[in-house]
Design goal:
414 residues, mainly beta, 14-stranded antiparallel β-barrel, 5 helices, 24 strands, 8% helix, elongated, disordered N terminus
Length: 414
């Protein structure tokens, strides 16, 4: 019984921590096409996310942008020592975003954003070699952000607003590496929780010393997501202990890290614009996660994440009055330290290549398209903190993964 309880606690920690280990940078089609730069780029209501201070510089009274992406991810795992080789089942996730901005007068604008900065899915084959750590996970987090932007001077503006976050998680893994029921079915558990809510804020500043040169700074606060009375459904347990795991609930807290972004853009001429962003993500807020079961037992699972940086470069070219091309690149550092590499977050440093275009259908409507190719560096790593009988049992091998992410959106303004 103690063995099952301890392993279940480790499982639940791993499941919830997936949000903390995986940040999705897909918050706008125009900006994604430019390497996901945007802290100092003034082109649409996507500024609600990238830098709300810039809304006062938009040239339209009202503008709305909406879009969605399809994430096609591939994960390959192998361990040559044991002859293991597994690939995930390539589940598709569809993060989305909606932004609107309204110019009240020359010095004040308001906006609203609804977007998904955390959310993905991973599914491995049943009873694969790492099934004691994860079989599958589905995670979603949606942010709602009202925004006010004030122009303090023709060259300086500020903006910001609260963020309301809501999320859900569903996760399954086997109890351990060997336990089965009387029919030989592997014992497993599914945890599920929804309606998790929390608050944070976003604040930004934009400075335009000239018409061609723009500087921007944006900060998003840490958000603590607290799961309370989540459900844990244990299946295929040995009959001797099955009755002890009926109606088990859990509480846990997860930090979504703060982010600081600084950027610059320069309009070379009427056709060309270049932009650069630097993002610092404060993952060191995620050192461990306490999980408390309804029977009063608690456990601490180490993650020991480190702060990481993202370096972004984007370009825009106005080919014609109706057709705009974009391209970009960014390098994304992993926050995962050696020895903490778990298969539910198989993330290493990555090189990211982007592109896309805008086609103006009319003076009010435009079609936005983007694509992103993510190539994670191959890594030979392990997770060393899974326990059986009080002993750490490392699980590791070589991970290769990549993702292709197309996206479409529509912009409307007048």
């Amino acid at each position: 019984m103690k063995k099952l309880t301890l392993l279940a606690m480790v499982l639940l920690i791993s499941a919830i921590s997936y949000a903390g280990g995986y940040r999705i940078a897909l918050q706008g089609q125009k900006q994604l096409a430019m390497g996901h730069t945007g802290v100092a780029v003034i082109n649409s209501s996507e500024l609600v996310f990238f830098n709300p201070a810039g809304l006062t510089y938009l040239d339209k009274k009202f503008t709305v942008s909406l879009g969605a992406n399809a994430v096609f991810a591939n994960i390959s795992f192998q361990n040559e020592q044991y002859g293991w080789h597994t690939e995930d089942n390539n589940s598709v996730s569809t993060p989305f975003n909606v932004y609107a901005a309204y110019k009240i007068n020359d010095w004040a604008s308001v906006g609203l954003g609804v977007y998904t900065p955390y959310g993905s899915s991973v599914e491995y084959p049943t009873d694969w070699e790492g099934s004691h750590l994860i079989n599958d996970i589905s995670l979603s987090a949606i942010f709602f952000q009202p925004t006010l932007s004030i122009k303090l001077h023709d060259k300086l503006s500020i903006g910001g607003g609260p963020i309301f976050a809501t999320g859900s998680v569903n996760f399954n893994r086997n109890i351990d590496r060997s336990t089965t029921d009387v029919n030989g079915n592997r014992s497993n558990v599914t945890i599920d929780d929804s309606g998790i809510t929390a608050w944070g804020y976003n604040i930004g500043m934009m400075f335009r010393p000239t018409e061609k040169f723009t500087l921007g700074v944006d900060y998003r606060s840490k958000i603590d997501m607290n799961a309370e009375d989540g459900d844990a459904d244990f299946q295929n347990l040995p009959s001797a202990v099955a009755g002890q795991y009926q109606g088990v609930a859990f509480d846990a807290s997860l930090p979504l890290p703060a982010e600081l972004s600084v950027g610059a853009s320069y309009t070379i001429n009427e056709k060309w614009l270049v932009a650069f962003d630097y993002n610092r993500v404060y993952w060191n807020a995620y050192q461990a996660l306490d999980v408390i079961f309804s029977n009063g037992t608690e456990s601490l699972n180490p993650r020991n994440y480190k702060n990481s940086s993202v370096y972004r470069l984007g370009v825009q070219y106005k080919a014609t009055p109706r057709f705009i091309l974009r391209g970009g690149y960014y390098f994304d550092e992993s926050p995962v330290r050696s020895g903490y590499f778990a298969p539910e977050t198989p993330r290493n440093d990555s090189n990211n290549f982007t592109g896309g275009f805008t086609f103006k259908i009319s003076d009010r409507f435009a079609l936005d398209a983007s694509f992103l190719y993510v190539h994670f560096d191959e890594v030979d790593e392990s997770y060393n903190y899974y326990q059986e009988d009080g002993q750490n049992v490392p699980f590791g091998g070589t991970y290769k993964n990549n993702a292709f992410v197309p996206g479409l959106g529509i912009t409307y303004g007048f």
